[in-house]
Structure to design on (194 residues):
């Protein structure tokens, strides 16, 4: 059994900590309201939840708040977990949903026009002397574009799932993804013509 140590360091290339196996007795105890079992789940899945929230929001404080929010919601909703999907996948979806909800509450997604979204982030000019890494590149994207790229490319969500999360069409999701990836490629290769 995993004691909370996992391979997800929050980095973009690491295995997802959501794939960890949950001890059936811990899950059963949590479903009965055992707070020690919730603490075990927090130790095991807190870091993967934080990593996903951080990648989606780009803000450490918001990501920390989201982890707390997700685990508080977990206390109320774990009884509805039926085991149809792995627990980690279920928790990952809860985290993604809570993050999108928070971004909407904070009016970070008020601009639904793709042209305006990308124009708003034009101010993030690339400095070729600056060392670029994947996380820094993602930070250059507008919030919605960053979330779509992370959910699709890193977390494996389909365009149908992303469209449902954001209340948009699949073509909108595809458009945001294509433009986000184009922006990332241009930022990663500043000498290339866009």
């Amino acid at each position: 059994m995993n004691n909370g140590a996992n391979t997800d360091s929050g980095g973009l290339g690491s295995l997802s900590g959501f794939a960890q196996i949950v001890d059936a007795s811990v899950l059963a105890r949590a479903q009965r309201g055992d707070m020690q079992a919730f603490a075990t789940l927090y130790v095991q899945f807190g870091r993967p939840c934080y990593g996903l929230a951080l990648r989606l929001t780009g803000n450490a404080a918001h990501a920390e708040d989201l982890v707390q929010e997700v685990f508080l919601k977990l206390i109320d909703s774990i009884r509805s977990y039926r085991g149809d999907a792995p627990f980690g996948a279920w928790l990952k979806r809860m985290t993604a949903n809570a993050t999108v909800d928070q971004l909407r509450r904070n009016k970070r997604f008020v601009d639904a026009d793709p042209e305006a979204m990308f124009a708003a982030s034009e101010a993030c000019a690339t400095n070729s002397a600056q060392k670029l890494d994947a996380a820094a590149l993602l930070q250059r994207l507008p919030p919605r574009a960053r979330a779509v790229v992370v959910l699709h490319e890193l977390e494996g969500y389909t365009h149908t799932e992303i469209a449902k999360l954001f209340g948009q069409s699949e073509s909108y999701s595809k458009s945001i993804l294509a433009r986000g990836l184009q922006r990332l490629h241009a930022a990663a290769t500043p000498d290339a013509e866009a």
Notes: The chain has nine helices and no strands. Residues 1-15, 109-132 have pLDDT under 50 and may be disordered.
